[in-house]
Structure formats: C-alpha cells, structure tokens
Amino acid sequence: MGLFKKIIVAVSDKAKDELKEYVKRVLEEKEQVDNSKEVKEKTPSQSEKKEEVVEQKQVVKEAKPTEQDEAQNSISQMIPLVNELPQKYTFTTSTVPLTRDIIDLTQLLSFDEFAIYLKLYIYSVAQRKNYGYLGNSLRRKTGLDTMEHRLFELTLLKLSAHGLISIEDLSSNQRTFILYVPFDEEFMKSQKKKETTAPRQEEKRQSNNNRNSRDRNNSNRNNSSRQTTNRQRPPREKEEKKENSQKQPAKKQSTQKSNKPVKQTKNEPRQPKQQQAIPGRPTGAMSDDELRKQYITFVSLEIDKAKMRVGRSSFDKIYMEAVKYIDSKHGFKVLSDPDKFKEYLTNYYMSAFDIPEFEEWKQNKK
Amino acid sequence: MLIDYRIFLKRIRDIEVKVVLCKNNFHWKILAEKFQTTHEDIEKFYQESEIPDDIAETIAHVRTLLVEKKAELPPEDLIV
Q1: ipTM here
Q2: For residue A323, with 0-12 CB atoms within 10 Å meaning exposed, 13-18 middle and 19 or more buried, which class applies?
C-alpha cells in the first residue's frame, strides 16, 4: 500500500509540473502576442507623425518658392536706372582722398559696416576732423537716420571691434567718436604739390592772355594815331570812324576779357588754401575765434574724459577741493558770482588734469 | 546795543539753518547774498569796536557751511 501511495504522489507531482510548464508557456506566448500587438500599434503612430512632418515640410517648401518668386517678380519689375556698363574711374582725391589703405580696409567690411564707415569718413573729411559727437545730428547729416537704431549701434560695435572707430561715453546721453583714417603723408604732399603747381600754370596762361590783349590794344592805338595824321583826307575819316566804331566793341570785349582774368588771379590764391585742408590737420587760415571755439570744446571734452577716467565720486571730491580752494584764494564773493566761479573752476580743472593752455594747445596743433 | 547784537546773531543763525536745508544752486546763491549783506552790515555796525566773539565765530562757521554746501551741490556748466 505504501508503495502504491508513493507511485500516485510521484505521478501527481509530475502532472503538476507539466501543468505549470504548460501554463507558463501559454502565458509567455500571450505576452509575446501582446507585445507584438503594442509594437504594431506604436509604429503606425510614428509613421503618421512622419507623414505629418513631411506634409509640413512640403507646405514650407511650397511657401518658400512663393516668397522667392515674389522677390524675383519685384526685381524683374524694377526699371534699370543705368543701362551702360560700369567703367573704371580714377578719383580726383583733392577733396575726398580714397587711399589704397581705405579701399583695402573697406573691402573686408560687411555692407552695413562699409556704408557707415565710408559715410563717416566722407563726413569727417568734409568737416576736416575725424572726431566729434556721436548723436542724432551726425546721423541726420550723414543720412544714417533712416537706418534702424539697433542695426546702427550693432554695426558701430563691430567697427569698434575692428578698430576702425573708438567710441567714448561722456555721459548717459553724450558720446564721442574718433574715426580711424589711414593718413598717407606722401600722398597728401603730392596732392599739395599738384594743387600748388596747377594755379601757377593757370596764372601763366592768364598773364600770356593779358599780354596778348595789351598788344592788341597797342596795335589799335597805333592805328588810331595813324588815323589822326591822316585827318587832311576827309572822305577817309568817315571810313576810319566807321572802322573805329566797329573796332571799339572789339576793344571793349578785349578789355573785358583782359579784366576778368585779373580778377580771377586775385581770387585764385584763396582756392589752394581751401584745398590744402588735410583731414586730421588744422588749416592755417583759421581765425583766432574759430580756434578759441575749438579750444573750448577741447577743454570741455578733456574735462569730461577726466571725469570718466577718475570716476564720479573722486571727481566730486576734486570739485569740493576746487570750491574750497577758490574760496580761500579768491574770496567768498567769487563763489556767488557764477561767471567768475566757472572761470576759476575750469582753471583749477586744467591745472588738476594737466590740460594745456590755449597758446600751448595752439602751438601743438600747428 | 544788546538788541542789535541779538538781531545780528539771529540773522546769521537763520542763514545757518537754511543752508542745511538748501538743495539747489539758486537757493544757495540767495543765501550767499544774504550772508554777504549781513556780514557787511555787521562790519559796518562794529566799525569802531571789535566784532563780538560769538558773532565772529558764527560768521566763520556759516561761511564754511556755505562753502561745503556749494561743493556738495551739483556743479554748473563750465566756461573756458
């Protein structure tokens, strides 16, 4: 009986194990089937997304060509202003010298940078100085006011990064610029020589013309003297008078012609003075008033620079010391007199920041 | 005499108080002019005798106060 029971238990255990294995297999198969189903479900969604993206791309592709087409249409609709082919010219550099250095520099710049630099360069040459206040008036004068403010500022920053312009902030509102201008001294000298020699040649021509006109006058006079000697012949007199009357306008014309160039010779020496103006160098024809004005701006700029360099707090301290100094030296009355106080204050600043005096500055500038 | 002394002292001390409250150059200028007139008046009054110590001290004190105030106030534009 014991053996029989053991056999039954062994058979039942085996059956149980087989059942378990069977159930496991069934479950695994089910899981596999489910996974496969899920994978199949996921893959079609991604594909749908891809299809959407492709559709969007197609839409974008369809949109781009339309803009391009519009641009092309607008360009094609534009009327050509110049039909001739561009020709090479040599610049007469007496007014705005475009040296090789400037050309080389500007070739490397982007469009906006190039535009701003060149405009500022032309402006600076016209102004005969390559520095000044950077504000709205400058933008208006150079035609840069139509440019967007952000773009203008950005390009200025780029130019300053290139080293073509240095910008200094005097205050929150005021800024100054110094434009880099490659100064070719030999080139300028050659230009000067040309300018000085050209008027001389013109003077020579005019003097020759004057001589010719004088000769003509003399010949006419001789004719008239001859005519006086032949007074005894009355019929000829009338003829001569007629001739003279015909000649008189000619004489007048000749004299007018001879007079006009003389006036020009008087005016001509002024031209080279104007033409001699070289950017970055003072002109000799400047009057003292103009120099004074320049000096005033120079001093105010120097004081502003010193203010920036020293800092607000220490500048205030210097001002306090200046007030005390003026009070001790010139008396209390000067403090309440604004004109005198300003004068003494500027003198104090000039001595404090080593700003040259007018005569010294004038000599240095020359 | 005593009344005059008190009046002068009061005038100067009024300026002293006003200097402390001064906030702009225009106000300062008015105070400076007031100070000058009072100073001149005191000098005129005490031509023969010496100015009392109290008044002299307050004048000096107000003067330094005015100078310090001028230095504290924002500077006007410069003229070369």
Answers
A1: 0.81
A2: buried
